[in-house]
Amino acid sequence: MLPASSCGVSPLFGRRPGADLIHNVVMVSIALRRTAGSAETVRAHRQWWDAEAEDYYAEHGAFLGDADFCWGPEGLRESEAGLLGSLAGKDVLEIGAGSAQCSRWVQAQGARVVATDLSLGMLRVARTIDAHHPARGVPVAQCDGRVLPFADESFDIVFTAYGVVPFVADPERVMTEVCRVLRPGGRFAFSTTHPFRWAFPDEPDEAGLTVRFSYFDRTPYVEQDSSGHATYAEHHATMSDRVRQVVTAGLRVVNLVEPEWPDGHEREWGGWSPLRGQLIPGTLIVVAERPLGQLDVGGGTG
Ligand SMILES: C[S@@+](CC[C@H](N)C(=O)[O-])C[C@H]1O[C@@H](n2cnc3c(N)ncnc32)[C@H](O)[C@@H]1O
């Protein structure tokens, strides 16, 4: 079994590969860089997040807040960032919502919100939170962010905080679906691992400060079981890839945000730490809009 740091970046939100108890079966996984198609990736994530849902909430729930909107491990909150604009009276869709913490906050701002996720396990945790939360429940739906079960032009705002985007082999498809369900003038914002991070081992200490991998190597990070089936995958895109994926879907980038690590913030999250956070970016937030008119999409690949 390879330690994650010897074969590539390790999973952002995952446990280290090794022996895991999933549905009462001991699963042994190894980590490597290899191609992984969209079907294999989605299958792996549905199972992985179902199995991980309660542990994820136990580990990160207090930091995220049951009804708060956190863009990533740096702790940037939408209440300070205001990237979605005014929310009151808006129709809002969250994809890769996990347990719908962000949607609960968005609802409290006066929006009509639907929280969606691939994993029924994550949505079950959302229901458990709702049962103990004073606000009324958030509507949830299980779906793949690549295939949204909503009519064209249904939403004013679509967003995700570290959902879907780093976990799919075909982010262009997500962007195209988001553009379809957005009304003209509507906004899409997502956070994801900063592309720069893929050049470094995903370690929170000094070991995570030396470039070990090519930034330009788009080979996914994959954990696989003893039969060779992926149990987890993350997909890299460079900064220009990310912008191109958004623009070719018909959206217009209006802001790129690289949250800085705040003084006094000591909480580590996987490879995210005060040491690294003060030196290199950890999170990228892309804010885009569906133009009111037809967008002239630029060509080229460079
Ligand atoms: C790191 S969690 C983030 C959850 C939540 N946004 C938060 O801030 O806690 C990633 C989420 O993306 C979801 N996800 C992964 N692939 C997906 C896909 N293809 N469609 C929809 N959700 C997906 C997972 O099920 C998981 O809930």
Please give the structural blueprint.
Layout: H1 4-7, E1 19-22, E2 25-28, E3 30-33, H2 38-64, H3 78-81, E4 91-94, H4 101-108, E5 112-117, H5 120-132, E6 140-142, E7 155-161, H6 171-181, E8 182-193, E9 221-224, E10 230-234, H7 239-248, E11 252-257, H8 274-277, E12 283-289
Parallel strand pairs: 4-5, 4-7, 5-6, 7-8
Antiparallel strand pairs: 1-2, 3-9, 8-12, 9-10, 11-12
Helix pairs in contact: 2-5
Mind explaining what this structure looks like?
The protein is α/β, with parallel strands linked by helices. The chain has a single domain, classed as Rossmann fold (3-Layer(aba) Sandwich), CATH 3.40.50.150. The strands form three sheets. It has a seven-stranded mixed sheet. Strands 3-9-10 form a three-stranded antiparallel sheet. The protein has a two-stranded antiparallel sheet with strand order 1-2. The N terminus is likely disordered. It binds S-adenosylmethionine (SAM). S-adenosylmethionine binds next to helix 2 and strand 7.
List descriptors.
alpha/beta; Rossmann fold; 302 residues; 7-stranded mixed beta sheet; 27% helix; 3-stranded antiparallel beta sheet; disordered N terminus; 8 helices; binds S-adenosylmethionine
